[in-house]
Amino acid sequence: MQRKEFLKMTAGLAGAAALAWRGRSVWGAERNEAFPSGTAGGGSLDPRVDIGLERLGWNLARVRERAGVPVIAVVKANAYGHGLVEVAKYLESRGAHAFMVGKLDEAVRLRLNGVRAPIVNFGPFSPADAGAVIDHDITQSASTDDAFALDEAASRSPRPASVDVHIDTGMNRAGVPAERALPFIEKLASLRRVRIRGISTTLTEDPEFDAVQLRRFLEICAKARKKGIDHGLRHAASSAGLLAGPEFRLDMVRPGITLYGYYPNARTRKEDALGLKPALRLVARVTFIRDVAAGESISYVRAIKAERPMRVAAVGIGYSDGYPPALGGKGFVRIRGKSFPVLPAVTSNHIMVDLGDDRGIEIGDEAVLIDNERSSGAAADSLSELCGVSDYKLLIGINPLIPRVYGGTIIS
Hints:
Elements: H1 3-25, E1 48-51, H2 53-67, E2 72-74, H3 76-80, H4 84-93, E3 98-101, H5 104-112, E4 119-121, H6 130-135, E5 139-142, H7 149-154, E6 161-168, E7 176-177, H8 178-190, E8 194-201, H9 207-226, E9 233-237, H10 239-244, E10 252-253, H11 266-271, E11 280-292, E12 297-298, E13 304-305, E14 310-315, E15 332-335, E16 338-341, E17 351-354, E18 366-370, H12 380-387, H13 391-396, E19 404-406, E20 409-411
Parallel strand pairs: 1-19, 2-3, 3-4, 4-5, 5-6, 6-7, 6-8, 8-9, 9-10
Antiparallel strand pairs: 1-11, 11-14, 11-18, 12-13, 14-17, 15-16, 15-18, 19-20
Helix pairs in contact: 8-9
C-alpha cells in the first residue's frame, strides 16, 4: 500500500470513529447503556467514586436557609467531579431554582437528560451556537456583540432567546466592561426576540474590592431600571459571596463548592457556619502486595530505596485518575480503618503504600483516597493542604470516566 493510500484510509477510519463517538456521547444520555444495569463495565479492582446524594441535599438546604433567595446551583466541571446529570436531577428535586454550567455542552446534556429548571450557560458563546441555545431553552451569559445573533436565530423559532447580562466590575476576565455596560444592556433590551432574565458580575473575593465591585454593579442596575429596563434577577454571590454578608446575596445566589460540602477558603472552613457535609468518597483497591528487602528499590528510576525490609501495597489509582502526584510522600490512604502513608511514587495507574508491619491487608481490600468524613483527616480540604492543590482542583480533577455510584447504582 502506498503512503498516500494509507493516509487516506486512516483518515477515513478516524473520521468514522469520531462520528460514532459523537453519536454515543456528545449531548447524549449520561448513562452508558453498553453495560448491564448495576455494573460499570470495569474490573472489580478498578477505582470508583461514591456520591452521597442526601449530603448534597443537606448542603443545598443549609445554603437556601442562609441565602433567603433563590439558588442557582453551579454544576460546571462535571458538578465539581460529582457527576453532572445525576447531581443536577437530584438538586432539582430538592428545590434548586436553576443551574449554572461553564460550557454549552453541559447545558444541552442536562436538557437531553430531562432537567427542566432554568439553565444558564456562563461559558463562551458564538453566533454558531445560537440555534442550540434557543432550541434547548438555555439562558446564555451575554457580554459581547455576538449575543445579538440570538435575536436573528430566535426570529426563526417560536421561542425567544434568553440572556443573562454579565458585567465585568473589576475581575478583568469576562463580561462587558462596566463603563460600556449600560449601552450594551439598552441594545439587548431593544431586540424583539431577546429576553433579559438576569444580570450578574463576578467578585474577586478580595473583601475590600468586593465592596467596590458591588457598588459599581448596583449603580449599573439602577441606571437600567431608571431607563425602564427589566434586567431580571441580580446575582453576584458565589459560595464566598454567600458567606461574606447579606449585601452580596441580592436576588439570587450561585453557590458551587458549598453544595458539595466544602468552604471557599480557610477562614470560612474554620467557622463552619453552614455545617456542611462532604458528599464524595474516592476509593480504589489494593492490587498487589510485595515484601521488599532492604537495599531493593521501588518504582520507576528506583524512586524509593528500601533502607529496611518493607511491606508495600500497590493501589490501583494514579495521576491519570486524578490522584495528585504531589500527595506522594505526603498523603495517606485508609484501609480497614487504618491509615497508611503513600510513598513518593505516584504513577499513571498506581500509588504505592507503606504497610509497615501490618500483615492483615489483602489484595482486593478497599483503600479510601478521599473520604467524606472530616474526622478522618482524608477529606478533600485536608488533603489539599497537604499537597498545595486546592480542594476545587482536587475534586474537579477526578477522572470523569471513573464510575460514580449513587445510592448503590453505578453510573459510568
